[in-house]
Specification:
The chain is an alpha/beta fold and about 280 residues long. Helix content is about 50%, strand content about 15%. The chain contains eleven helices and ten strands. The strands form two sheets. It has a six-stranded mixed beta sheet, sandwiched between helices. A four-stranded mixed beta sheet has the order 4-6-8-9. Strand 1 and strand 2 (about 20-25) form a beta hairpin. It starts with 10 loop residues before the first strand and ends in a 9-residue tail after the last helix. This is Enoyl-CoA hydratase. InterPro entries: ClpP/crotonase-like_dom_sf, Ech1-like, Enoyl-CoA_hydra/iso, Enoyl-CoA_hydra_C.
Amino acid sequence: MPQDYNGFEYFNVTFPSEYVAQVEVDRPKKLNAFTEAMFHSIGSIFDRLSHDPDVRVIILSGNGDRAFTAGLDVQAASEGGNISNKDITDVARKATRIRRHIQEIQDCVTAIEKCEKPVIVVMHGISYGLGIDMASCCDIRICAKDTRFSVREVEIGLAADVGTLSRLPNSGVSMSFVKDVALTARDFSAQEALQVGFVSGVYDDKKAAVGRALELGTLIAKKSPVAVQATKDVINFSRDHTVADGLTYVKVLNSSMVQTKDVEDSMLAGIKKTKPTFAKL
């Protein structure tokens, strides 16, 4: 049985299919906007899911009809003291505290990308700021046709610092598009997101999008977890390195991974026309 993931305020962690976990942001009355505590919660959730042997795929979504997430809860952040730091007058010391705080938040969101298991994000309604930060960390991005995206930070006088400006240029979309949406903070639609390649599928509504994510997750969960996790690892490594580096990395990785019993089980299942069952990882 999967581990107990109760106790994380504003998050529901459920298991809709064997080896598939769904993480749902659950603060719909506030459009699923994030407080500082919520950042730490999502980081902890994904750290645990990454090593949970009963989980092979994760779906990330938002509760409610209006938003995947409206991003940072700006009012809560301004009241928290980490932005203003009014008790410190020395510029260097104030900058150091802010830098450390930003690093903490970055690490929480990066936990989604570092998760060993594939993560499928389902966006709907308002998907602003942090919504794109988190989605950029995910392996497969799909959305409902009512989704409205925005890289929102310049609208509140900031350069986005949680991941969008670093990951969006590596997401397969054009640099012109990245600068367009990041500099204007304009909304862009699900159809535009599909056109530029930010998402790989647009569905009629949230229910249909979540249903598609579950189909994909269930399909992936039936594959060898050794093969799936190694594939994600190599793709992410290759994204950030040269082709030669990627070839060397997978060569070294597979010198151990191809020795798994999963290869034999997969081949035998193919010959016998049966469905293989793989041990937990």
